[in-house]
């Protein structure tokens, strides 16, 4: 595993390692350019290819609640009208679909099918970033993720992750922040 740190005080430099999907125009390249242009404090972390939040968090060495779990959801507003949201929650939680239904005043909320999620996020499943580069995809983040100084997520590639300063994430991504997470397992009452 290799880590590269970038701070706003450092002179702008190209990403030291070129990955298969880091060619100009890819989501990874677009994300890294956004971070560099926005002088975001971040670190690149190379690791074995992995998209499962718990496993990749162990590879990166971060706490699970610092991992940004990114899920594309379909919000059925009326019988004939749907919209999509990128729901981002801490890695130790899950998306609360009932809360999203209430938030949007929707008839139904469900996980988007894989093809739609990949089309709207411009990422393969398991590497979706907590940024929206598509006007059809609304970005909504649970505040629990933003409690840490850094957040961690795959950088639109299964073998490359980012550790990003939370303040810089909020500034550059400009997400809607509202509670949308629930515990992974329901507790008996």
Automatic annotation (TrEMBL):
InterPro entries: YbaK/aa-tRNA-synt-asso_dom_sf, YbaK/aa-tRNA-synth-assoc-dom. Residues 1-25 are annotated as: Disordered. Gene3D superfamilies: YbaK/aminoacyl-tRNA synthetase-associated domain. Residues 56-172 form the YbaK/aminoacyl-tRNA synthetase-associated domain. The lineage of its organism: Bacteria, Bacillati, Actinomycetota, Actinomycetes, Kitasatosporales. GO terms for molecular function: aminoacyl-tRNA deacylase activity. This is YbaK/aminoacyl-tRNA synthetase-associated domain-containing protein. Residues 15-25 have a biased composition (Polar residues). Pfam families: tRNA_edit.
